[in-house]
Amino acid sequence: MRNIIFVGYSTSGGCKMRGVQTVQALEKYSSLKPSYILGNIFVKEVNTIKNSVIIFVGEPLYIVNNQMLETLSKNNNVLIYDVVDNFCFDHTNIFSNNNLIDPYKSLDVIIHTNSYSKNKIEEYLPNIKHIIIPHQWDIDNENLVTPNIINTKIASYIGGLNGFQLNKNILNGYIDVFNNTQNGNDQHSKYNVHSSFRASNTLDYLYKPCTKLAVASCFGALLITSREESVVDIVGESYEFYINNEDDFKNKMDKIRGMSMNQIHHYRDNMLNIKEYLSPKSTVDRYNKLIKKYI
Q: Which residues pair with 35 in a beta bridge?
């Protein structure tokens, strides 16, 4: 039976959510006992690692070079790359950086954020297995009690300001924007409407994970969002709270403000269904299905 090793270059951000916490969830909900190794340690041990399933969390070329990938393949390792959000950057997007094609050919599996990413990259790397595992919410929130309905009059954006691509001055009175990526739970729980917006001419729109949707679902909050590929995969084309600009945002908020409690509960129930779909346990089910093909 092969060992299972998750490899990342840190224990924070995407590496924490998709690496450290996925290991925790696998230990909790499956019979698998994986480990998480930092990239600098992994590189020192590359030549001794054999007969393992290795999941690189984030860009593998930050951690290992092409020669190391070839060595790992020769040593009967299965090489899996969980993209997270690395296709959102020109230097790590295969369409912008042709130098990635040959190294990626050493991989056995690429885990994509959405079906758009899967279908596009599959055209260039048809001999690699391509699957989708959407982004989950924080495992630390598994015992979180769904907040009561206390504020449907104004939306929130909580996260790095570089991810907020609307004009907050135009949206004055419609949204509170917080530059906060560390301690968002208290803020999230005070808003029953969350927001996400990616301009359609950006790589973020095409390749960003559905993180904001996962967070909103965890709090039973409605999400006003652009028609991002990762969101469409989960909620479908006919979702009622898609927006294209600031005017759309205002219109959706005005609609929510005019809803009855029964209507609000209806949409919250839908979000709680999404919460189950994007839970750490569901992520484990998807990883189990993948890993058990190779161990």
A: 5
- Give the C-alpha separation, 95 to 149, whole Å: 44
Residue of 119, 140, 139, 123 lying closest to 131 (CA atoms): 119
User: Can you say whether the dihedral through the CA atoms of 178, 198, 115, 109 is positive or negative?
Assistant: negative
* pLDDT of 177 over the 70 cut: yes
Report yes or no: 213 and 196 within 8 Å, Cβ to Cβ. yes
Q: What angle do CA 22, 193, 172 make, to 5 degrees?
A: 125
SS3 state at 131: strand
Edge-to-edge order in the sheet of strand 155-159: 175-179, 155-159, 193-196, 222-225
Q: Quick one: which of 9, 6, 31, 32 has its CA closest to 21?
A: 6
Distance CA 173, CA 72 (A): 55
For 3-134+280-291, which CATH class? alpha beta
Where b means 16+ CB within 10 Å and e means fewer, 275-289 reads beebbbebbbeebee
> Could you tell me whether strands 109-112 and 78-82 are parallel, antiparallel, or unpaired per DSSP bridges?
parallel
Domain ranges of the chain: 3-134+280-291, 139-277
Local confidence band at 129 (pLDDT 50, 70, 90 cut-offs): very high
Q: Cα-flanking dihedrals φ and ψ of residue 274, to 5°?
A: -65, -35
Nearest CA among 38, 54, 42 for reference residue 3:
54
> Which CATH number is 139-277 given?
3.40.50.2000
272 in helix, strand or coil? helix
The helix (H) or strand (E) run that includes residue 120 is: helix 115-124
Structure tokens at 258: 């005019």
pTM, whole model, 2 decimals? Answer: 0.94
Instruction: Give the closest residue to 52 by CA, choosing from 87, 79, 70, 83.
Output: 79
